[in-house]
């Protein structure tokens, strides 16, 4: 097991948006200290050039451990941290169920990130893509009646979902709403989530 000390975490300076927040939430939930480096794009380009020999993936999000090892990319990093911090699901069937939720969350997040480059598609996204993603998550989080988590015990993939469910219809999605409320009330997350900007504007990245 890797000793998670003297951690340095790297992602672009996108606030709570993008693929960097799930790992932050997991580390905060586990009460693990880390240096949070929120990079501007030129800073990342310089760091990426330096990393290419040590870390061939050279992609964000990225975690550097105290022993100089690098772990990165959103899905693999979440799975690595889940294992190291004891958030793994209990068995193969449960792991498969949670991995499905992780993939659905990634699909949703990718549609949200696409809006960084195509902000004119936001109305279409809200009318077509968002209800579809919400419906799939509502079904997954209602499969185990005990709730509010996807499984009877909570796991890290719940955290990936939480980052995508910011404005949901509580009447039409009661299972997902229960999960979001329970997640935001977690002891080690309440203060961190409460500090999220209340008026965070959507990221827009010009294509030209």
UniProtKB/TrEMBL annotation:
This is GST N-terminal domain-containing protein. Transmembrane segments: none annotated. Residues 7-89 form the GST N-terminal domain. GO terms for molecular function: glutathione transferase activity. GO terms for biological process: glutathione metabolic process. It comes from the Eukaryota. InterPro entries: Glutathione-S-Trfase_C_sf, Glutathione_S-Trfase_N, GST_superfamily, Thioredoxin-like_sf.
